[in-house]
Amino acid sequence: MAQGRPELVLQRKPFGSWLLGPAGQSPRQLRIRGQLLLTVFSLGTNIVGASVVFMLSVFVLPGPPPNHELQLVRAIAFPGYFLLALVVGAVWSTRYALRATSWVLAERPATRKEQITTLQLPLRLSMIEVFLWLLATVLFSVLALIYQPDNVLRIMITTFDGGIVTCAASYLLTEFALRPVAARALADQAPPRRLLAFGLKARTVFFWAVGSGVPVLGLMLTALLALIEKDVSPTRLSVIILALGTVVLVCGWLLTALSARSVVAPVRSVRNALTVTGDGELNVHIPVFDGTELGSLQAGFNRMAAGLRERERIRDLFGRYVGPDVVREALASDALGGEERFVAVLFVDLVGSTELAAIRPPGEVVALLNRFFEIVVDEVDRQGGFVNKFAGDAVLAVFGAPAELPDPAGSALQAGRALARRLAQELPEATAGIGVTAGTVVAGTVGDVRRHEYTVIGDPVNEASRLTELAKAVPGRLLASMAAVNESAPAEAGHWRPGEEVTVRGRNRPTQLAIPT
Predict the structure, then answer these.
(1) Tens digit of each residue's pLDDT (9 = 90 or more) over 368-409
(2) What gap in Å lies between CA 151 and CA 349, rounded to an integer?
(3) What's the gap between Cα 355 and its chain centre?
(4) CA 402 to chain centre
(5) Taking the chain, what is the end-to-end CA distance rounded to the nearest angstrom?
(6) Share of the chain above pLDDT 90, in %
(7) Which residue, 41, 260, 303, 467, is most buried by CB atoms nearer than 10 A?
(8) DSSP classification of residue 444
(9) Measured CA angle at 468 (ends 511, 486), to 5 deg
(10) How does pLDDT run across 77-86, given as a tens digit for each residue?
């Protein structure tokens, strides 16, 4: 697991597009980028929508040719209202958006109310456009009713349908542009459960209806106009159908594509994050920028990743106390009990630690013990052993349990020789006795259901402890039993020679000593 930053924000495009910038952009960059995208998207969709509406109402849909008064009104009212609506909509939307996201420039987390306002901002901005388009529908219908009533239905249909589709596209683009702001609003909180007027299922149905249902309804009303208009030729009817069919296909494709992208982006971020997590990288965090169930999915992944990081931290910390092999053993089975295993035991004990504690400050004693333990753990780990416990100024290490070794006795003897050499070179101010032996022990978990400890119990443990006491008085401070040497591989056994037989305290059988050559 990586140990760098506490959280790695995933992807070069954390919000699904390079247009939205990186996750770590400054509040000022965020506001400028967001406002620029909002303005471009709003102007672009409304210009295209108004142009399509104008072309359909004037040149495509069936109906009587406009009289002179309606032509004059159309030449003045249409462009005049359109420009006025663009200016009013841009100013109104900008002022509202700046006020709703003022917390961003303040560089502070959003409150719950500000969070909800920010997530509802695409809907609120789209409602401004809906109002302006509805006002256009009413205004143009009234003007047509005054100057040429026969054209009222044609103008009403095209303006209303065009406005609905344009506002729906503008909503999706606005939601896209505001993803970084939504992510910052949701940085420390999960999406509210009942925030939006409709969730993912309702939104899918709604955009299908707007992208396909409304244009098809307009096509059907156009057919009704053709029936009312008696002198529509087959050629003109064919042109009308082709033009409206193209508009229906383009509008349906556009809204479906935009709606699909709004769904795919958060799902893809979770998918990519799961891939990285599956490869072992747990320091992963993805921005939560969706206010629907997909936002809850993103937040759920972040909670899962945080839980995995915490579990891995606890496992790592637990492993430092009891050893990684014991951790794996405990995860595989937490039952109390043990099994007979052939192991080698290495015992190390400092000489004169009581006197050291009496003449040195406590801080120096602790520092000395830590240097001593560091050397011991390093060599035991190097040979595949397991430091079973620290007992004051002594260390008990086991080779062959809980993880099996091909040559536990040889590994323990080699660790003992390396320890004696390193302690003499790297820790000359303190000496330690080292004892090594081998034999059959019971290795397993003992204790209570509320408190477990992995340990080894048997005669070799006692024998290694007694050999350590004897080793403190011999040159080199290292002794082993010939039983361990006889069980080791020839390459290691060649470094030892037999010594005298002694009966150590607490045992009724003699032990033949082994001395390093």
Answers:
(1) 888 988 999 999 989 988 888 888 788 999 998 888 889 999
(2) 104
(3) 53
(4) 35
(5) 44
(6) 21
(7) 467
(8) E
(9) 40
(10) 888 888 999 8
The type of residue at 110 is: A
Cβ proximity of 435 and 471 under 8 Å: yes
* Phi, psi (degrees; rounded to nearest 5) at 505: -60, 130
What is the C-alpha to C-alpha distance for residues 181 and 192, in angstroms, rounded to an integer? 16
Tokens of 309: 């990081």
Quickly list DSSP for 259-302: HHHHHHHHHHHHHHHHHHHHTT---EE-----SSHHHHHHHHHH
3-state secondary structure 109-166: CCCHHHHHHHHCHHHHHHHHHHHHHHHHHHHHHHHHHHHCHHHHHHHHHHHHHHHHHH
Number of H helices, E strands in the chain: 18, 10
Q: Evaluate if residue 135 carries a pLDDT over 90.
A: yes
Nearest to 484 by CA among 416, 391, 393: 416
Q: What is the pLDDT of residue 290?
A: 81
52: three-class secondary structure by DSSP: helix
| DSSP state for residue 187 in the 8-state scheme | S
- The β-bridge partners of 512 are 501
Cβ neighbour number for residue 484 with a 10 Å cutoff: 31
Q: Are 447 and 336 in contact (CB under 8 A)?
A: yes
For residue range 479-506, what is the model confidence (pLDDT) as tens digits?
A: 999 999 999 999 999 999 998 988 888 7
Total residues belonging to the chain = 517
Residue type at 495 in one-letter notation? H
Q: Which long-range contacts (CB under 8 A, 24 or more apart) does 385-390 make?
A: 385/346, 385/411, 385/412, 385/415, 386/323, 386/325, 386/326, 387/323, 388/323, 388/454, 388/455, 388/456, 389/455
How many other CB atoms are there within 10 angstroms of residue 18's CB atom?
Answer: 9
Q: How far is CA 279 from CA 14, 275, 301, in A?
A: 19, 6, 15
- Phi-psi map region of 447: left, alpha, beta (phi>0 left; psi -120 to 50 alpha): left
**CA 36/CA 34 separation, integer angstroms:** 5
Per DSSP, the three-state class of 177 is helix
pLDDT band at 476 (very low <50, low <70, confident <90, very high): confident
Q: Which residues pair with 395 in a beta bridge?
A: 348, 390
Closest CA to 153 of 215, 228, 234: 228
Coil, strand or helix at 233: coil
Mean pLDDT, the chain, integer? 81
Residue 48 buriedness (CB in 10 A; 0-12 / 13-18 / 19+): middle
